[in-house]
Amino acid sequence: MTHRRAAVIGCGFFSQNHLNAWNDLSERCSIVAVCDIDRAKAEAAARRFGVPKSYTNVDEMLANESLDFVDIATTAPSHLALAEACAAKGVPVIVQKPLAPDWTDARALVAALDRAGLPMMVHENFRFQAPLLRAAELVKSGAIGKVVWGRFSFRTGYDIYAGQPYLAEVERFAILDVGIHVLDVARVFMGEAESVACRTQQVRPGIKGEDHATVLLGHVGGGTSVCEISYASHPEPDPFPFMIFELDGEAGSLRVDAGCKIVWKNASGTHHETAAPEAVAWGSEPWTVVQDSVRATQRHWLDCLDSGAVAATSGHDNLKTFALVEAAYASAASGQIVRPASID
């Protein structure tokens, strides 16, 4: 097992979870530099996490530091240029989702790493949440038979704008911010989608993008799923930050609820369990399931670097999810069913 030297670019809201998780993995990885265009944020992160160097210029950091990989934890519009700079220096990257603001940048980013012959991974942490991993094990074991229908729901009234105020200014909002997680999980349990129908709504005054979307996916093999995405709902109780989903199989059903609770039913009866995340010393409820998944995502990246395996959420895999995002927006704009294969 190789001990790796790495840097984190972006020292804002969510990157604090990345940095904490890298500290938890310090026996395998050392963060030797952080970078942010805001000098105060970079210096504060370096002090808080015991990082030796802080930078405000990525090119300077890449020139000065010997790095085994870079964790790009900035907002999506900056990802392509940062990934290209890393690729030019022969440095692999793990990139925060969404991979890019649009399909053109997403494809260009993956192509840049391909040309350089470098591994990359998208920090798609929902896949690594403890209850989703356990549910995937159950489905893979045949506990409910072939899955034929699914409903994947992330609906909340949580004030997402308090920590990330820029989200009120983006024109492609809920689907690209959290819907990309929901669509990715739908792929995990239902397989690839061949048709997408979507309607969006803008409920909250004063924002530029959609804060509510409903997506109907037709999957290869005949399955159907519904993806519910909302930052404008008022559920009681509010399940945030949990995604709730339910599956119908040919031999049973399964449901994942808030609090990491799983219930599944088949011919042997009804079964209940709680798939709790690992303890996170730096975390707090209700965020533990997210924070543990960040650490699990980053552990998977290190495992793949050690083994040479392709990451579960590689760039090419994530392009399949990104195609669903693009198809959803195209469907909402046109009122027509869109085939992801037509996205180009």
TrEMBL record:
Domain GFO/IDH/MocA-like oxidoreductase stretches: 133-255
Superkingdom to which the source organism belongs: Bacteria
InterPro entries for the chain: Gfo/Idh/MocA-like_OxRdtase_N (IPR000683), Gfo/Idh/MocA_oxidoreduct (IPR051317), GFO_IDH_MocA-like_dom (IPR055170), NAD(P)-bd_dom_sf (IPR036291)
GO MF terms, alphabetically ordered: nucleotide binding
Location of the Gfo/Idh/MocA-like oxidoreductase N-terminal domain: 5-122
Family annotation (PANTHER family): CONSERVED EXPRESSED OXIDOREDUCTASE (EUROFUNG), OXIDOREDUCTASE
Name of the molecule in the record: Putative dehydrogenase
Organism: Kaistia hirudinis
